Amino acid sequence: MLDYIPPEVMTEIMTRLPMKTLLQCTSVCKSWYSLIISPNFITAHLNRNNNSNQIVVRYFIADNKLTGKDQYSVHIDNEAFEKLETLEFPLPGYFSIMGSCNGLICLSNLHFMILWNPSVRKYVTLPTPSVTYESRGRFQQTIGFGFDSASNDYKVVSVVYLRPDGLTVLPGPKVELYELSTSSWRNINAGDFKYIISERDPQAFLDGVVHWTGKEGDGLPNWIVSFDMENEAFGVMMVPPSLQQECDLRVAVYGDSLSLIHLKVAHCHRDCCIWVMNEYGIAKSWIKQFTIDLDNGFLGSPFGFRENGDVLLAALHGNGLGDLVSYDPKSRQIKDLGICGRAYGFSKDTYMASLVLVKGLSSILERRESSCDAVAFEGASLLPREDDEGQGNQRMEDNVCARTCRVRHSTYC
């Protein structure tokens, strides 16, 4: 009977299914598996679910040995801040969220970068860019991540400045671009690009463009530096005149607008100003949206915004720990969201369940099938085993694929 259902009707039905059910459907038959991993279906699924109001929160919990592990939880961005699930991160150590787009999260530490899709329990380890300490000596790096809708591809841009004496930053960066479709880095001609982006500066990804803060050199005015993922070109925008010589600036997305978070410390008093660019690219459209008194409640610097305009930050304990709280700029009320971690280890980004990366699983599983009877066909391993619940997630790597591919595709169960 299912053979008589037109493909467009089957797609319409399946894109409405919850992610867990959809992954279970990959184990029903090969025709369903082929449909679900097809680029057209993945795009249709994204388009249906792109209005998700979910966010992912990263925090770090330390144990008694002063070590610990990154924690990731998904929440509905509503009044209750309802927790949907805790994501099992497949790697040890401390990572930072570089960005998130269509359910794909870019993370980095001092050693390597990964693209991680928790929905399909898969991550890709990016190959090492050409600039390393061994090849070029000391350097500083900034990373940007986003989606190019024109080529339907996910890209990571690496902007590296050499620091031969460990202090002086040399202008003229080395720029490389990673594309998920090719699984490789390539050089980008930066031309006469003269701006220095703050090291590992948090990004703001908006309408296909990555944004950071930067300047031409010490003592020179601040700028917003951008990189267009489609055109693969840099640009700059002016910050508000009153912020041109200020320190402690970072970009963020406020609603559908570009914003600036400015931390001020004067006469032992800390506050934070939020600026919003009402018309993108128009310098005169900057307005100061509101100011937060950080000493009222002993608050840390904001690291993101909620859908209703509230601000996410940490209420500091004084012992290196903090509670995740939401600040309402209208009522100036603070609400505890029930997460405790290292005070300056919180970050957030958008999140949605998606099938991005699911197709790349097939080449690994085809090799794995030839050596074991773990799966009946490729789609069967997309789901965690029921008997592993509560046991923790164990990383599984395919050594054959690691030797034959330029990146390592890994699943965990």
Q: What attributes characterize this protein structure?
A:
five-stranded antiparallel beta sheet, mainly beta, 7 helices, globular
Structure in words:
- By secondary structure, the chain is mainly beta.
- It is built from seven helices and 27 strands.
- A six-stranded antiparallel beta sheet has the order 4-5-6-7-27-26, with no helix packed on it.
- The radius of gyration is 22 Å and the shape is globular.
Summarize the structure.
The protein has helices spanning 7-14, 19-25, 30-36, 39-49, 133-136, 361-369, 399-404; strands at residues 54-62, 68-76, 83-87, 96-101, 104-108, 113-117, 122-125, 139-148, 153-162, 174-179, 184-188, 196-197, 204-206, 209-215, 222-228, 233-238, 249-254, 257-266, 269-277, 286-293, 304-305, 311-316, 321-328, 333-342, 347-351, 395-396, 408-412. The protein has 413 residues and is mainly β. The radius of gyration is 22 Å and the shape is globular.
